[in-house]
Give the backbone structure.
Amino acid sequence: MSTIVRLQNEIFDPGQESNAFLKDETQAGAAVTFTGIVRSNAKAPITSLTLEHYPPMAQAQLEGFATKASERFELQKICVIHRYGKMLPGEPIVQVMTLAPHRRAAFEGAEFIMDFLKTSAPFWKKETGINGEVWVEAKTHDDDAMDRWS
Amino acid sequence: MSTIVRLQNEIFDPGQESNAFLKDETQAGAAVTFTGIVRSNAKAPITSLTLEHYPPMAQAQLEGFATKASERFELQKICVIHRYGKMLPGEPIVQVMTLAPHRRAAFEGAEFIMDFLKTSAPFWKKETGINGEVWVEAKTHDDDAMDRWS
Amino acid sequence: MKVLYFAWLRERLNRGEETVSPPKDVTTIVDLMDWMAKNDEGFELAFEKRSLIKTALDENIVDHDTPLGEAKTIAFFPPMTGG
Amino acid sequence: MKVLYFAWLRERLNRGEETVSPPKDVTTIVDLMDWMAKNDEGFELAFEKRSLIKTALDENIVDHDTPLGEAKTIAFFPPMTGG
């Protein structure tokens, strides 16, 4: 099992990261990539999104979720990339990649990490639009999503 | 909703396909990519994998699964790429990509399509190893995976 | 009607497709398999375990007791293993 | 001990971190919040709805009734919205 967790301000290239993750892998049959993208609704367009984070805790939490996922599902490799700072609509915020012998584990591992990340990793989103800035509110359905793994 | 289904003999670049799929998308928040890879076990190494298929039916079935997925989950875009012919360990066989406002739909849509594809799309795998050629047997757990959507 | 074979079925029969003209009393897929097995020993061997064989009429998967109807193509193949 | 604030909590308090030296009878997180609110009106306003505020002691999320113990850092923040 190998795990990589990267926190970064810089934009990343989703496809390039997937290819780097898959490179030279011949023992695994299934790879899942989740990419979270800065979304701008037509009704309430945003001009940018800013992510604040608590660096050492964010790193530790993400590594913890990856370890939990690897204990629970048959995974061969995990990579989590999460950005902080200012980003624009269409840009990637987060990418979670899992590699497994079988597809079910790869899907579940990625979804498990995302569900924990959404509710328990110390990041906070602030949207900037034409009417000013607003902190994004936490969603109860994210708590529900996390709870189904317990 | 836009759906693309591509059957092809040629190898494809997983990351490049993901990037093409994501390009200019600012209305969606979540993208999931599943990539199936030719696996070679250390215990029973294979030298190549050959996929036979029934072309018009494979195309129709994959389009049908994509339509079912889009009716069932809130998806904005689906792309399915499936190869046929001869391929080598480490090469991608199949890629399913989904784009949705929320991650749950993107995950479920991709997993739904893969579960149907595994049991109901007319493709047949033959492994070539040092001891000769053998047709891969269907797995009952793939039937179980499909059944959970009914 | 056109008959297609795939994977190990195709290999055992040593052909991927053929055209058959069954008599009128051959109305279902089971009838067709019986009739073909009677006329061809290779077919009988290849189709020994019929429960392992899946069938598509004009590209739609159907059960063996389905009537042939106006179908132009029938395909026989083992359980699918794509993805 | 070091106190950290994030997101709208940081903005309302107009500071991201500070160092506090609570008296010995401040043993739990609730005690600390009470003591800080008593000394600082801004804090009292910012922490009005305590159920909305999450707490981490030395980078581990804990309930408000947790003893401060030997913790070097306490962080206060709203529910997380990453990903």
Observations:
- Chain A touches chain C at residues 103 (CB under 8 Å).
